Amino acid sequence: MLKKILTSLWFVTLAWPSFAQKEEEEGIDTKTLAFGALTSNYTGLIGGVVARSSTPVSVRKNKSVYRYLAVEALCLKNPREYSQFTGFGPKYTPGKRNYLFSIRPQYGREYAVFEKTKDSNIGLSMIFAAGPSFGLLKPYYVRYEDSNAFVQYDPNRKGNINGVGGLLKNGVKGIKFIPGLHAKAAVNIDINTFSDNVTGLEIGTTVEAFLKEPEILASTFSDNPQTFVSVYLTLYFGNKSIVKKKDSGNGID
What we know:
Elements: H1 2-20, E1 30-40, E2 48-60, E3 63-76, E4 84-85, E5 91-92, E6 98-114, E7 122-139, E8 141-144, E9 150-152, E10 161-164, E11 176-191, E12 197-210, E13 227-242
Antiparallel strand pairs: 1-2, 1-13, 2-3, 3-6, 4-5, 6-7, 7-11, 8-9, 8-10, 11-12, 12-13
């Protein structure tokens, strides 16, 4: 059933640009490019980074419509993860087998609700976007007290843990790929701190599903979610630039 849903979402994602091109296009005069950090209920305090752009494409009911493009990269956690001391100094996560990283390219639309008229004003818009998810499982390396080597955590191995490898331990060795899809809806609050700078908040929810269950924690410790429904907050900084106005029907798609 889940595979059928994911297949349908893939077709929707691929067809979305074709539907978007049918929107009535008019000239609008600014676009933004920004970078930021995000957090959610499935990540740590700083769970990932994002690059995003909004380019005007049309006007609907006297409100601007923007083409929204973004790429998010974040580390997802099992909600049951917790840390404890090894007894030798560093902390480790009991039962953790892998880190789960998700890279999310996104395409969608941003609809203005309240537009800024002066630099001190606040803009409010709604964002709807979707795209593929590139899940990467990277082994979680630990060192047992009876060995000097770092190995992937094994729930069946006896012995105390006296060390934990970092995110870069062993490079890309052992990384596994898990494809998926995601979609999000958000409220965007856009604040101009200077005439050509942008500071903003994006608050929303994301639904992300992978083709198979990612093994974050060992099955003896917890089930791992295959679908992540998260509430997130993104803080971003960037700049805006002028876009030459186009006649109706000759806008940017």
